[in-house]
Amino acid sequence: MSASLHHDGLRDGVIEARAYQLEAVDVALSGSTLLVLPTAAGKTAVAWMVIAEMLRRSDGWALMIAPTAALVKQHLDDLESVFDKESTQPIAMSGAIPPSKREGMWNKGRLVISTPQVVRNDVNKGLLNLSDCCLLVIDESHHSTGKRAEAQVADLYLGLADEPLILGMTASPGSNSEKVEEICNRLQVGRIHLRTSEDNMLSEHLANLDIEELIVRVPDEIRELAEPFILWQETIVDRERRLGRYVIPGAVTHRGLANAMERANLAVRRGQSDAYGSMSRIGLAMSLHHLINHLLCQGIAAAREFLDRKETGEDAEKKNTRNLLRDSRVRELRGSLREMPEIHSKVGAVRRLVRERLRRDPDSRIIIFATYRDTVTALDTALADLPDAKPIQFIGQSKRASGTGLTPKQQIERIESFRFGEGNVLIATSVGEEGLDIPTADLVIFYEPVPSEIRTIQRRGRTGRHRDGDVVVIIAEDTRDEGARAAAIRREENMHRAVARVGRKLARSTHVDLSNLDNFSVGDGDEEIPASEFIIAVREKHRPVLSEVQQTPEQTESTDSRKLSPSTFRPKGQTGLEQFNSSGE
């Protein structure tokens, strides 16, 4: 059940109010809050309502931060459509604007959307004053940890604002209590407002997602190419196991190699002379691990580009890189890769999925997520000759000296091209996972599963936002793909338990239910009612109803409670007085 929302700070009727969203607004206005809702459940609409009410209550201004320039642009477009432009004047700030111009822009409007790095830098330079900022909204707030810019902005805001209020929003805060606690502590939130897709008030508003796992067989030719490097890697790891530096049992993993490198580093600090050799060998094993995974899980073109980048990139002068490229096995592999066409089954699967989707619906929008830029390039080439396919690469800014990335302006242009149909297949790395609202994306393809539950949820959330969508996860049989998929499922299951566990431990301030919604009303046709009445009506609709049960006859024999053990009436494991001997023994 939903209806048009009315509030003095918002254009009437632009928001379709839902009861669970208004509940979240009520909680967020009572104190700093972490809002956890599934993707496409309307977190941004909650932020709009909270912003409108805080601007009404205060003479200050509101700040919203988002992790990418493309997402900042998207939020600005949305804010301009729901807020009165003359009174609120939403403005966007990014690193593309020189600091000299930004200084005079901060005071031009009461609502600013920015990347967190710009806010942090301008506060530290004295260009921005946060004292009268009445609200900080942090989109994708799972980033608010460690030395991330989102966390640093929260630190500055909490220290400088006269009356700080934070609304953190995410669909995926993390799968363990420690991560969730870190976010809550950093943002100093007093409440976590959690709703899952199984919630009765929410589920009816979510589009359906069909998630399919497509298992493909790695061609024998590719396995034969990878075999010498698997043996080489195992030889290195076996030696480090004997030295006590690779200690994680089972198959060789990146986590195991990273742990071994940490142990070797510690051994160097302790003065162990053989530790330098371990560091060199483990570094080589890491390169081999990436090469093996490129071959088995990505394909010929991705592996070829990986080795080419090793030769020309910033690692080219490192000893490990030189040793890798000089080896006869690698030289032979590079020669083979140059002569081979793309034969990995995943590439063929992607071509088939895209071709079938566009044949059924030429107006479809498809997003393909891949971990490596090498794979993005290879897929772009593989799809270029498909009828009706218009692929667009979407990658982040390059941090490598030799890398070719996209500037924030180019990212925005490519998203707009995809949105308006100039391209219909977006091939993206992780930069495309978060927040982007592309309404007509009705198929998402994971070129490989990722073990992170956060990235899995974010990727999946790029479809089904406004209509039913499909998700296909491509898994290479008998590779690390299988372990990554299992890890993501396990971590996602743990996430809601961790959030609920942390939420119970927070010291909540006193809050009267629905007391912050006096200035909100909803209307359906000519009738308009207070938001609180609307929520109560929806709650009543979804209230569980006890079914009639057959009454059991009264037992003729009553149980004498005096015969029951006292342990029946206390928590399991708690000691009772009767267990102590009265004689004092």
Ends apart, CA distance between termini: 67 Å
CATH class label of the largest domain = Alpha Beta
CATH architecture of the largest domain: 3-Layer(aba) Sandwich
Query: Which band does the percent of strand residues land in?
Result: 5-15%
Task: Compute the number of structural domains.
Answer: 3
| Number of alpha- plus pi-helical segments | 21
Q: pLDDT average, as an integer?
A: 84
Q: How many β-strands, per DSSP?
A: 17
CATH topology call of the largest domain: Rossmann fold
Can you give the helix content as a percent range? 40-55%
Largest sheet, if any?
7 strands, parallel
The CATH homologous superfamily of the largest domain: P-loop containing nucleotide triphosphate hydrolases
Mass-distribution shape:
globular
Which radius of gyration do the C-alpha atoms yield? Answer: 28 Å
| Sheet/helix structural class | alpha/beta
Strand order of the largest sheet: 5-6-4-7-8-3-9
